[in-house]
TrEMBL record:
This is Methionine ABC transporter ATP-binding protein. SUPFAM superfamilies: P-loop containing nucleoside triphosphate hydrolases. The keyword Repeat does not apply. Keywords: Amino-acid transport, ATP-binding, Cell membrane, Membrane, Nucleotide-binding, Translocase, Transport. CDD domains: ABC_MetN_methionine_transporter. It comes from the Bacteria. Residues 4-246 form the ABC transporter domain. InterPro entries: AAA+_ATPase, ABC_transporter-like_ATP-bd, ABC_transporter-like_CS, MetN_ABC, MetN_ABC_transporter-like, NIL_domain, P-loop_NTPase. GO terms for molecular function: ATP binding.
Length: 339
């Protein structure tokens, strides 16, 4: 079942200047997030990610198109209907957005009081959640007395108090160091696996996508330019913007001047071999080996997403049979002759 379903969604803001064009923050987006999935929405600053989140949680109406959450069309919904949809969505923010004047317990209690939950039930839920996020001993601390990672764990617990089915996390690790990021990502994974929540993470960090997400949508200029399973998109990124993001994890295949520089440094013929699952790499290595050429690995890297690995190696082939070896492998899938 789809938890979030966007069809041809547009969001325009008025032109910033009197003679300017309206800002098309979201420009014809189709996006489906299935129940139980962790879906990453990736894009550079200004791509439209936060606007998309505000459309999904009903903080702003779409200019046109359909926004469905758990099957309910939220465009044009009245205040009461919208509140019902919103109570099923938890939000986690980059800057935690905790009340500094309230204790951890008080921060978790606030949304429950607003929702009219009875005191005993409030007590039970808060205590369970504080145990779940590993902060039972901090119930009476104030946010200022906590580390960034602990604050974000409180933020996640608070988002879960109303027992939502969907969690929206907007750059929720961008203010944290790498170790704390890992801790928060592990907690989000438990929220997904143990509590069964669907999670949408907005991020520009590919480490986060790699560690957490099942599926990815890449946004650029208000559009989704690429979408798919994380392992597949990482192994074979199609859009330029996706390639740039993936290259932050693994060096890209050399191009243009880089090839000439590499060849000047290492010599021989250069080929790049794709290491994605199901590629022809073992055939390539066998054929190259059979030609008795001098083989050097001169660039590349392998990465792991879930059970799949992807990446590439650039090989320099040298010796009398180098041209014949290149000719033998040139037509195989995943092989690129560079020089
Ligand atoms: N309330 C608003 N009024 C006018 N323009 C807006 C408004 N909100 C966003 N925009 C514009 O819409 C575009 C998309 O912005 P948005 O914040 O959704 O991008 P983003 O991908 O989330 O970027 P960031 O990571 O920097 O938050 C930008 O050009 C932005 O200036």
């Amino acid at each position: 079942m789809a938890v979030v379903e966007l069809s041809d969604v547009h969001k325009q803001y008025p032109a910033p200047t009197r003679k300017g064009e309206p800002v098309r923050a979201v420009n014809g987006v189709d996006l489906t997030v299935e129940a139980g999935e962790i879906h990453a929405i990736v894009g550079y600053s200004g791509a439209g990610k936060s606007t998309l989140v505000r459309l999904v949680n009903g903080l702003e109406p779409a200019t046109s198109g359909s926004v469905k959450v758990n099957g309910t069309e939220i465009t044009g919904l009245g205040e009461k209907g919208l509140r019902a949809v919103q109570s099923d969505i938890g939000m986690v923010f980059q800057q935690f957005n905790l009340f500094n004047s309230r204790t951890v317990w008080g921060n978790l209690e606030f949304p429950l009081k607003v929702a009219g939950v009875a005191p005993e039930e409030r007590q039970r839920r808060i205590s369970d959640l504080l145990h779940f996020v590993g902060l039972a001993d901090k119930a009476h601390s104030y946010p200022d007395q906590l580390s960034g990672g602990q604050k974000q764990r409180v933020g996640i617990a608070r988002a879960l108090t109303t027992q939502p089915s969907l969690l929206l996390a907007d750059e929720c690790t961008s203010a944290l160091d790498p170790d704390t990021t890992r801790e928060v990502l592990a907690l989000l994974r438990r929220v997904n696996v143990e509590m069964g929540l669907t999670v949408i993470v907005i991020t520009h960090e590919m480490d986060v996508v790699k560690a957490l997400a099942h599926r990815i949508s890449v946004m650029e200029k208000g559009r989704v330019v690429e979408q798919g399973d994380v392992a597949e998109v990482f192994a074979r990124p199609q859009a330029d913007v996706t390639r740039r993001f993936v290259a932050t994890l693994v060096d890209g295949v050399p191009a243009g001047d880089e090839i000439a520089e590499l060849q000047a440094r290492v010599g021989g013929r250069l080929i790049s071999v794709d290491l994605a699952e199901g590629g022809a790499q073992s055939k390539v290595f066998a054929l190259v080996g059979a030609h008795g050429v001098d083989v050097k690995v001169v660039q590349g890297g392998v990465n792991q997403v879930g059970a799949s690995s992807f990446g590439h190696v650039v090989l320099s082939l040298d010796g009398e049979q180098a041209d014949a070896a290149v000719a033998a492998v040139a037509a195989l899938a995943g092989v690129e002759v560079l020089a």
